[in-house]
Design brief:
Distance between the termini: 35 Å
Order of helices and strands: EHHEEEEEEHHEH
Helix content: 25-40%
Strand content: 15-25%
Number of helices: 5
Strand order of the largest sheet: 2-5-6-7-1-8
Radius of gyration: 18 Å
Length: 203
């Protein structure tokens, strides 16, 4: 059975690559615990974003103190399958790098949702945006009210609209340090978090 071809080119920011390496290191020490589970969820989400199976959870907006992230999308991640999602992965949609290329998804940060050093602080810092400033150039993406409640159909419609805007937006380019994530590189990351087989206690 052949794997489906990717629908998007995944591009990693340099800081996101560091996030991923830290998660991998923690997962190696605790492959069957929360660290291992979280890392596997992150890798699964990256694969689903590349395949177009996932479009993220919902679009982001502007909120004073959390920054202007109207061109960004967040995906929810759990470090514990029995609890609510406590981590977020933030990415940006953007047009192809050239004719005949796939549209891109730039991964910016994967961090805890709340607390010091949370996802919003890191994303704003990596995009060089002040957390209390609006970015006038992002007015093309419209406004999104903080805490907006939507059903699944409304979320998908908003994501589709924002994606279309991003693909046509000339200012939507990756960070200078971002690089494409190769299939080989993704496989190497994935291989590092497969838990070792449980010992056969019947022997």
């Amino acid at each position: 059975m052949t794997e489906a071809l990717p629908r998007y080119e995944v591009v990693l920011g340099k800081a996101f690559a560091v996030d991923l390496m830290r998660l991998a290191a923690a997962a190696e020490k605790d492959p069957r615990g929360p660290a291992g589970y979280l890392h596997r969820q992150v890798l699964k989400q990256i694969g689903e974003l590349a395949a177009g199976v996932s479009d993220g959870r919902h679009a982001l907006g502007y909120e004073s103190g959390k920054g202007d992230l109207r061109d960004c999308v967040t995906a929810y991640l759990q470090s514990d399958p029995q609890r609510k999602a406590d981590y977020r992965l933030v990415f940006r949609e953007m047009p192809p790098a050239g004719p005949g290329r796939l549209p891109r998804r730039e991964l910016l940060a994967v961090k805890p949702r709340q607390g010091a050093g949370n996802i919003y602080e890191h994303t704003c810092s990596r995009l060089n945006r002040h957390p209390y400033d609006r970015q006038p150039r992002l007015n093309a993406f419209g406004d999104r009210f903080p805490g907006l409640r939507q059903n699944e159909e409304q979320r998908r419609a908003e994501l589709d609209t924002k994606r279309a805007i991003a693909h046509a937006f000339p200012g939507q380019v990756p960070l200078a340090t971002s690089r494409p994530l190769t299939a080989a590189g993704f496989g190497q990351h994935a291989a590092r978090v497969v838990p070792p087989a449980a010992p056969d206690l019947g022997r």
